[in-house]
Amino acid sequence: MNELFKRNRRAYTVVELLVYIGIFSLLLAGVTAMFRYLGHFKASTHRLDVLHSLRLSSFKLSEELALSQQFLSPTGDEPDKTVHQIVYFNNSFELIVVYIQKDKPQDETGRLVKLNWTEHLKKPDSKPQLEVLANAAIELNVTRPTHDYLEYEVKIKELRPDGQPEGKVFTLANGARLRSK
């Protein structure tokens, strides 16, 4: 009779198989959720990077505008008028232009660039040296409520890894008051 109870176990019971399958399914679900979370984390980090670069560019532009000598465009004659470029003399009395440069006029996005026009006029045969403030810029709206204050709003689109614009649009508004006046 002892021999009946001492049989070799070479197979698993149905209950043991179900327990092992359940544990494996839970582990697989946890790994899948972790990879999905990492994908969302990467996209969120990329968005934060885009916003940070836009904020940093806007801060630098705002500081330079505040230290400039004079705003030329918008003129300030019509406080409600919106223009799409900023023209000013910086603190070295160089003419600076900030605008959106597009490769083709029908392109949806371009680059927000800053051009030192005075430096460009010194070397008229060379290509203008543009400082890129933001990529994938959609719109630059500039108003001048008073003669010593300028407000601007920049809209950019998020870029996919291949460089093409994606659906999310970021807007940043800022202003600068002339400190030299």
Layout of helices and strands:
Elements: H1 2-5, H2 14-66, E1 70-73, E2 86-89, E3 95-101, E4 110-116, H3 117-122, E5 130-146, E6 149-159, E7 165-177
Antiparallel strand pairs: 1-2, 2-3, 3-4, 4-5, 5-6, 6-7
Total helical segments: 3
Strand order of the largest sheet: 1-2-3-4-5-6-7
SS strand fraction: 25-35%
| Average pLDDT, all residues | 86
Query: Structurally, how many domains make up the residues?
Result: 1
Please summarize the sheet with the most strands: 7 strands, antiparallel
Number of E strands: 7
User: Which structural category do the helix and sheet elements fall into?
Assistant: alpha+beta
Summarize the structure.
The chain has 181 residues and is of the alpha+beta class. It is 35% helix and 35% strand.
Essential attributes:
181 residues; alpha+beta; 3 helices; 7 strands; 35% helix; elongated
Explain the overall architecture.
The structure is a single chain. With 181 residues, the chain is α+β, with helices and mostly antiparallel strands. The protein has one domain (38-177). The chain contains three helices and seven strands, in the order H-H-E-E-E-E-H-E-E-E. A seven-stranded antiparallel sheet has the order 1-2-3-4-5-6-7. A hairpin with a 5-residue loop joins strand 6 (149-159) and strand 7 (165-177). The radius of gyration is 30 Å and the shape is elongated. It starts with a helix and ends with a strand. The model has no long low-confidence stretch (mean pLDDT 86).
